[in-house]
Task: inverse folding
């Protein structure tokens, strides 16, 4: 773990916007990160609607992986 990014807002949609902005502005050079995965998760309908569970990523990884934009 090199960094932890946390945000707070009045509601879930605003917090998602703030987190997307924070991750978009983050720079880390020389090492691979999971930033693209986290951005993809923030755009995932199941995560947006809070209908995820502890096995969600494992169940939906192939679909989510297709939406990842590489840095």
Result:
């Amino acid at each position: 773990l090199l960094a932890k990014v946390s945000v707070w807002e009045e509601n879930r949609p605003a917090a998602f916007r703030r987190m997307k902005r924070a991750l978009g502005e983050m720079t880390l050079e020389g090492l691979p990160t999971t930033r693209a995965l986290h951005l993809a998760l923030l755009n995932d309908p199941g995560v947006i609607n809070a209908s995820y569970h502890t096995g969600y990523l494992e169940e939906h990884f192939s679909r989510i992986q297709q939406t990842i934009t590489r840095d």
In short: The mean pLDDT is 93.
